[in-house]
Automatic annotation (TrEMBL):
<comment type="similarity">
    <text>Belongs to the NAD(P)-dependent epimerase/dehydratase family. Fucose synthase subfamily.</text>
</comment>
<dbReference type="InterPro" id="IPR018376">
    <property type="entry name" value="Enoyl-CoA_hyd/isom_CS"/>
</dbReference>
<dbReference type="InterPro" id="IPR001753">
    <property type="entry name" value="Enoyl-CoA_hydra/iso"/>
</dbReference>
<comment type="similarity">
    <text>Belongs to the enoyl-CoA hydratase/isomerase family.</text>
</comment>
<dbReference type="InterPro" id="IPR029045">
    <property type="entry name" value="ClpP/crotonase-like_dom_sf"/>
</dbReference>
<dbReference type="InterPro" id="IPR001509">
    <property type="entry name" value="Epimerase_deHydtase"/>
</dbReference>
<dbReference type="Pfam" id="PF01370">
    <property type="entry name" value="Epimerase"/>
</dbReference>
<dbReference type="InterPro" id="IPR014748">
    <property type="entry name" value="Enoyl-CoA_hydra_C"/>
</dbReference>
<dbReference type="InterPro" id="IPR028614">
    <property type="entry name" value="GDP_fucose/colitose_synth"/>
</dbReference>
<dbReference type="Pfam" id="PF00378">
    <property type="entry name" value="ECH_1"/>
</dbReference>
<keyword id="KW-0456">Lyase</keyword>
<feature type="domain" description="NAD-dependent epimerase/dehydratase">
    <location>
        <begin position="4"/>
        <end position="157"/>
    </location>
</feature>
<comment type="pathway">
    <text>Nucleotide-sugar biosynthesis; GDP-L-fucose biosynthesis via de novo pathway; GDP-L-fucose from GDP-alpha-D-mannose: step 2/2.</text>
</comment>
<protein>
    <recommendedName>
        <fullName>GDP-L-fucose synthase</fullName>
        <ecNumber>1.1.1.271</ecNumber>
    </recommendedName>
</protein>
<dbReference type="InterPro" id="IPR010198">
    <property type="entry name" value="DHNA-CoA_synthase_MenB"/>
</dbReference>
<dbReference type="InterPro" id="IPR036291">
    <property type="entry name" value="NAD(P)-bd_dom_sf"/>
</dbReference>
Amino acid sequence: MKLKVEFWRNNIIMQDNIFQACKDFKVEKLVSCLSTCVFPDKTTYPIDETMIHNGPPHSSNEGYAYAKRMVDMQNRLYKEQYGCNFTAVIPTNIFGPHDNYDLEDSHVIPGLIHKCYLAQQKGEPFTIMGSGKPLRQFIYSRDLARLMIWTLRSYPEADPIILSVDEADEVTIGDVAMAIVDAMNFTGAVEFDTSKADGQYKKTASNAKLRKYLPDFKFTPFKEAMRESVQWFVDNYSSGSERLEEVKYEKSDEGIAKITINRPDKRNAFTPRTVMEMSWCFTDARDDPRIGVIILTGEGPLAFCSGGDQSKRGKGGYVGEDNIPRLNVLDLQMQIRRLPKPVIAMVAGYAVGGGHILHMVCDLTIAADNAVFGQTGPKVGSFDAGYGSTHMARLVGQKKAREMWFLARLYDAQQALDMGLVNKVVPLQQLEQETLVWCREIMRNSPTALRLLKSALNAAEDGQAGIQQLGGDATLLFYMSEEGNEGRTSYLEKRPPDFSKFPRLP
Ligand SMILES: CC(C)(COP(=O)(O)OP(=O)(O)OC[C@H]1O[C@@H](n2cnc3c(N)ncnc32)[C@H](O)[C@@H]1OP(=O)(O)O)[C@@H](O)C(=O)NCCC(=O)NCCSC(=O)CCC(=O)c1ccccc1C(=O)O
């Protein structure tokens, strides 16, 4: 690690602020997360919680390790002086879904999963650096989450606790590689590159203290945890999310997808690339049958989206890396409109220009109390004569729509609520929480009813295109019926169809 000073200062400043704020606001319990690198470089094994301060940490990460050691001291001092219930956990080698799977800077398991996947795709050998003999204890992220909740609720001490699998569950890097091979159904050659260094042979940690409190805690079997992690990686790799540069894309186990425009320095103004990336994400969310509702938002509290990036605007549209001018946000508006699942705009800060239109074409809008809405087009030489005008008039009425466009004023969240532009306004800190409440309520409802309602509401505005969407949904339902299938089956069986058993209802 190069930035030792930054690691030291940033961690110390964060810790000092958090501890003091938790004391001042009488927070009932604070659990800080340390890591095994706080332990001395030269030590005996297994390491345990009493050995943190027994000697210098490895020099490569001393800025970070010394700062983290201070957490242990802070926990004790705040308890002694103010009676605070603060403590720390020390997890060992976490892995699981949502990890950092980047090839350059990920930990061993996500890095190997990614390498094995690429080897599978390219038909190349799966190469593991080193002999594969070093031993490590790995904890599955879901197990760690359960233990963290237990720590919050029930662990009584200020002294830290190691959260690790048992010593008997230590595995070699070679075992890890073979578990990945199994989970991935990898059929190619597996090679160990012994010209590369192995790293420390073992770093065994004792979980005796954890076992004293929770003798019966059952860790997820390693191979099962590996299968879930590999499955998560494969599912999410195909979404193309690794290639996203201007947008963030997340999917939750609850069936909620979240697309975040990630250009906060430009108030989340969109370029042709931003729009393309959003479009990939919406396509993935539409095609993934586990997803039932999609959130569209902007990174940070200052803006949902400030419209087209004016610095990329050329003659004929916004110009990307290929030098071709585009107005591709119009296709994105259509995509959101036609997507057969509810899309919710989650708006903090500015939603202006083309960004305002994006929130309007979403099915619902939840706004933070700092949200600001409006069209700026006539001020910067632009306008949207499509949904930006006509759908707006449906939402707020003709007079108000003309006011918004002709004067190009900005409106606060309460004004937007009063004119029917948004569904709810909440304090900024509650924005995500409230949006998730709406998403979860939607997830409990019939997906087919929601789909048909969306296309019916669109059809009333969208003319023949709207009827086509509603008509497509009717065909989908018919294809799912026995009557529809009788037509197909009779054709394949080379017999006349028998529709006589289907009722001709009034
Ligand atoms: C959004 C603001 C009101 C925020 O103000 P403030 O908080 O004071 O921040 P700033 O200091 O102004 O901005 C910080 C930083 O971001 C840059 N930036 C902000 N917005 C844009 C933008 N749209 N393009 C490029 N850059 C932007 C800003 O320059 C600053 O950068 P520095 O380097 O730090 O200087 C305020 O920022 C603002 O008013 N922004 C402009 C809003 C705007 O006019 N947007 C364009 C409207 S036109 C449009 O969106 C058309 C879109 C389109 O493609 C289209 C075309 C044809 C038909 C339909 C459409 C359609 O979208 O439907």
